[in-house]
Amino acid sequence: MRAAPAIFSPLCIRGVALKNRLVMLPMSPQLGTDDGCVTPRIVDFYRARARGGVGTIIVGATYVDPRGGFAGGQMGISRDEQLIGLRRLAATIKDGGARALIQLHHAGRRARSANTGLEPVAPSAIPEFEGAEVPKALTVGQIEGLVDDYARAAARAEKAGFDGVEIHCAHGYLPDQFFNPRANARNDAYGGDLEGRTLFARQLISACRGIVSSSFLITVRLSGENGMPLADMVPIARRLEEAGVDMINVSAGDTPERTVPDYYWPAGVNVHLAETIRRQVQVPVLACGRVRTVAEAESMLQQEQADLVGLGRALLADPEFPQKAARGDLDSIFYCFSCNQVCHNPLRKIPGIACSINARTGREGDFPFIPATDTKRVIVVGGGLAGCQAALAASERGHTVTLFEETVRLGGKLVAASSPPGKKHFLDVVKGFERALEQAGVRVVVNKRADMESIMQEKPHSVILATGSHPLIPPVSGIEVAEVVTAEAVLTGTVQTSSPLVVVGAGAVGLETAHLLLEQGHNLVVIDMLDRAGEGLTNSAKEHLLGVLDRGGVAVVLNTTLVAVEPGYVRVEREGVSERLMAKQVVLATGYEPRQDLVAPLGEMVEVVMIGDAAEPRDIEHAILEGLQAAYNL
Fold this sequence. Notes:
CATH topology of the largest domain: TIM Barrel
Radius of gyration: 27 Å
Largest sheet: 8 strands, parallel, barrel
Strand content: 15-25%
Number of domains: 3
Shape: globular
Structural class: alpha/beta
Number of strands: 27
Helix content: 25-40%
């Protein structure tokens, strides 16, 4: 008997059989051509998820009109020329065992002429926010033209072989803009009361239904809350059901912070929205919103909160999540920890979909599971994420691998990073690696500091140094005293702390350490020589942490340089003025420097590769990617 019988039960919608209740949520891979065509990288991306066991895949955000595009690399379904790639994509998904739907999208006022080269349009000439580009108000004729665009897109989707479409009516995009009086000030048939504000969406559903076959699915994505309360969204859901939709995918928000909630939001944050709407409609309802684990997904169905469960980032982190869950091997799942550092970070400069903990995401074709032609004995020194990934990938390719870790457990810097409030589940990734390394036959030696003798005893062909980094200690007078400790020591609980404290460094590590100290009841202040706080954090996480510290009475003082540490005090300088701050203890969160002590002696005897923080202290994405690359370069 399956451990999660509900999520693996079949469901039939309009005669279309779904093998299970797990749905890959629509996400734009942003890997398309400049004219919106499907690329091999997109096909590879969806192939991996289809083969991973998910029942249904909704291909994300394909524009029905180039004017409604919102980002580079977005796929389109606005021209017949795009059909060749769309056919290949639909066939790939279905060959992998999943049902294939495609999302029809128009950004409306959220489009930018800088991206599209075209003036954005919207229900009314109201910008998304103050200072944003002012859209052109649609005429009735233009609205009718857009209805036709959606219908023709649905016909193309069926022609391409998809099982259905999802009309994107959520997240502040065009149909959602018609719903919302803040964006819709029209005084014609498309504005005013609820009948008017839902007319456009109802026409889209009717037009699509009128052009496709009777077995073709037409679904919608709806925000349960989008600046309008849930009580206002329920009657909208009912009207869309009356218009003929086959399923409602209930999300939330019109801002990234709510649409893609990070680790400070509770698990299943939007499920209550789906549950409320489900009670008011007869069609199946899909729930989503930071659903991370099998138990969370199963509970939603067992408690009849939804009929289907949407997985987004969970399938970026581990495409085989459903397959592993189906066979009951839950410890082998690489669980997403909602960091949003890579998959949903507008500050990230590398285009295309990606994942911090799965370097293959968006690069599936670069790292195929191909055995090495020349197998080697490989030593990996360091059991952080870079070392774990290198050891796992090397073993999967057929090499004989031994992994040395000097502490009692794997995880490296992630052990400390999981200590602040709200981040305990980060260690789930380490559990995933531990299980995978065991299954791959990697010999793991913990609590053993590898040196020249122990390494060379193994007679390796190659050594991968993932030795990490150690805290950077600034050259400040008095810094060597016992009252000065590192943030890493505080986070791992290896030192005793006493108030008042001064945390030096207001980057990600400094603010998270301050958060932990505040939770422990300490009196503290955070200082930084820069003029900004939260470097290394997403905007959402930064705002959360700064808010928590502010409400807890913790001052974050910027443009302030540590000058000296004195008994009971620190001396700082701010804007040319020197002052003293009381401090029984000083906590340094001033960065890291690589550990490279084995590089020179080993390099004279064996092939050596440095990865992760040992090469240069950076983030999880680079560590895991370099681990994977090192294994493929052996």
